[in-house]
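Let's practice the habit of predicting before peeking. Look at the sequence and jot down your guess about where helices and strands might fall. Then scroll down.
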Amino acid sequence: MMLRERGIRSARRSWHVEDSLELVETIAEKEHFPSMKLWLVTCALGFTASAALMAGCSSGSSSFGTPSGVTPSGFHSPRTISINGRLITAAHPKLRMRSHVAPVTPDRHHELNGLYQYVSNFYNSDLVEFDYPKGDPLSREIFSDEPQGECGDALYGVAKRDFWVVASGADEIEEFAYGGIGPIKTLSETAGEPAGCAMDPSSGDLAVTLLGTGDIVIFAGASGTGATVPDGLASSYFDGYDNNGDLFVDGITASDTYGVVEMASGSSSFKPVTLSGTIEFPGALQYDGRYITINDQEAHAIYGYTCSAMSCTLERTVKLSGSSDCVQTWIGKGDVFCPDAGNEALEVYKYPAGGSPIATLTGSQLDLPIGVVEVSKWAVRIS
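Done guessing? Here is the structure:
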């Protein structure tokens, strides 16, 4: 009997979980209940959050719910989710059958400009390639082991043809070129579970966050074995460089609150940053050409800050209306792309206008999208 993997490694399952999955999928297929299959399989797998079982798997429940221990909206005590023993950066993805949302007709301002979006697809262990505004996912299969965060050699906007993906299942960071189906370079680390990444365009350094530890691994010139630097957080989610080469990292503190730290250019250590306003759950950090931005997964908003002397002042709020759980967003040229782990879609918003999405890109390939990067096939990488 063949068992459908759904991107979760069979080597990590115990024999009784495998048997349960086979039985559940067989019953669902035999009884013609395809819409129930993922829900039943999800319950059989037993998602965990802070080592607790998922709420909503009991019989008679009409709600899919979220894993026990996940931070509800408005409650300021984040918890890191674990799926089958693997920590992930999503706040609380909905556990349900994916909905095939009809794409909104987008504007055509990207037409024929050679821009492509690569979405990290955690469950399927691959990357899904889009060419917005056409919208349809391309047929190219790009494999990566439980990918999460992505980044590229770009100060803001569009990466220069190649990009990096954090393959959390393999504890690797993989470099891909536009149009490729496999990595052209691979970096490894052993300090923890990699989650997010950022690249300093001025130096070429690659900084990788680690979930479950208070460390960052920095690969000088995106090469070598990497240097592990403590950042003072309990769990580091996302990072981003500003135009001065300052590195910002956000995550969860030892007291289970949101925290952000900064390592100034030329420094070798991190210091805590004071923010105006409140961030509920860690999200992507990115310089947008004017502000250091922080995506709040719980508030469904991207905040723009001006920062000086370890203090950041809120200047702008961009609402991502209609999103469920935008994880590692990517701000491009006039757009922001939201890999929505709850809606299982890539949503596109005007930036910095925000509001409702101008396009919703989806398809059967998307299964727990977590990260995204936009790449230009015409740009030539400058070493």
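How did you do? The longest strand covers residues 311-319.
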